[in-house]
Design goal:
The protein is an alpha/beta fold. It has five helices and nine strands. Helix 4 links the parallel strand 8 and strand 9. The N and C termini lie far apart (30 Å).
Length: 178
Amino acid sequence: MNITTIGRGNIGGGLARLWEQAGHDVTTLGREGGDASDADVVLVAVPSGSVSDALGKVTGLEGKTAIDANNAFGGRNEDYESFAHEVKAHTNGPVAKAFNAGFAVLYDQIRKQRVPPSCLFAAEDKARGVAEQLIRDAGLDPVSVGGLENARALEDFVPGVLAKIGRVFYRFAPPGEL
């Protein structure tokens, strides 16, 4: 897959490395923006208050499948139900919310775990398969929390629960799958 990450920090840069190791072609874009025309999928991992500004500097987004990985640590635009909805307003393509409920500083330890850690995600039907594949390719186990209407719940889960626990991997599974 051709992947463009918008954001080169811990999440964008970390996932770019994991996906390259899995055989994907990855282009990383920073604050200066760039062109995503060749991308099959776009990851948006920028400071939360700058989603619209960052996407406004990127061309070739129209209709792209996008994965939003943002959390509200730096504010949010309340005109949108969630960051995933803000991303969708700029791409007009299928969107998933993923990779926001994990600790990027632990990415180099994912493959050392006895079982793959979980990655909670919410996705529109047309983005679900891509999100699941890229979650697996990062060494994680995808766990759906439903459609994009649940993206805000994932954003609220991070400061409400995970930030209080600290740097951990977690595992969610239906009964009988552990």
